[in-house]
Amino acid sequence: MGWFEAVVLGMVQGLTEFLPISSSAHLRIVGEAFGWSDPGAAFTAITQIGTEAAVLLYFRRDIARIITAWFGSLAGRRKDDPDARMGWLIIIGSIPIVILGLLFKDQIETTLRDLRIVATALIVFSLILYWADRVGAKWRELPDLTVRHGIVYGLAQAMALIPGVSRSGGTITAGLFLGYSRSAAARYSFLLAIPAVLGSGLYEAYGALRGDVAGQQVAWGPTILATVLAFGVGLVVIAWLLRYLARGSFTPFVVYRIALGALVLTLVQTGVLAAK
């Protein structure tokens, strides 16, 4: 991987991680469109450390409050504290993606990166997001989270192991179906991602250091640059998206996903892009 490639992919990662349009799909598509080799699942996971660092910075007060309350609940204090409950719900919601990510690691790094699968996921899950945005009651807020809802959110997040689904898109869709407001669903999506995405990034980084990576090996200099860029761009996108969701719908993202998916399928079918 060259430095220019790292700059482009780092900015793509930062722009798309928090929007419901799938960062992994965009990294795969952009790499193929420029004639670069697939950056690989390891590169994607490591650069996501940058975007999650943006989450840690943006929500630093919320996170500090949640962590403090959660440790207090372990000591038998603050058991009924909403922040302590949020800490437990984030842990519960992270379990599905950890289990499924380990079970299907090889498929995630190889088979599921087929552009036909990526494009199909972009289209199919955009329609599900559109449906959820239309029928969701949108009256629930984060204090209304329950254990059952946390598990549903977690299962939805695990669907993002398929490039094209979108981790934020999957969890936000689940939240809308459960009756949560757009902004509440988005905020919980960001918080829920922290353990899973940081864990995945560190796990892939460890595997890359050992040389245990399916596909392209990690070029550390460019990858670190891409991660730093993803952090800066991602921080701006978080702030913008939360302001936008206070008044806007997900329809523009749905239209974009369908158009992109259809374009990729056409380009693959005509031989302009290679599916694998």
Describe the structure using short key phrases.
single chain, 276 residues
Model description:
With 276 residues, the chain is mainly alpha-helical. It has one domain. Helix content is 74%, strand content 0%. The chain starts with a helix and ends in a 7-residue tail after the last helix.
Count of structural domains: 1
**Share in helix:** over 70%
Uncertain stretches: none
- Straight-line N-to-C gap: 18 Å
Look at the helices and sheets and give the structural class. mainly alpha
The topology string of helices and strands comes to HHHHHHHHHHHH
Please tell me what the overall shape is: globular
Give the averaged pLDDT, no decimals.
89
**Count of DSSP H/I helices:** 12
Compute the gyration radius: what is it? 18 Å
Q: Please tally the β strands and state the result.
A: 0
Please indicate the percent range of residues in DSSP E strands (runs of 2 or more).
under 5%
Largest sheet: none
Task: Lay out the secondary structure.
Elements: H1 3-16, H2 23-33, H3 40-58, H4 60-74, H5 82-103, H6 105-109, H7 115-135, H8 147-158, H9 167-177, H10 182-210, H11 220-245, H12 251-269
Short summary:
The protein is 74% helix and 0% strand. By secondary structure, the protein is an all-alpha fold. The chain contains twelve helices and no strands.
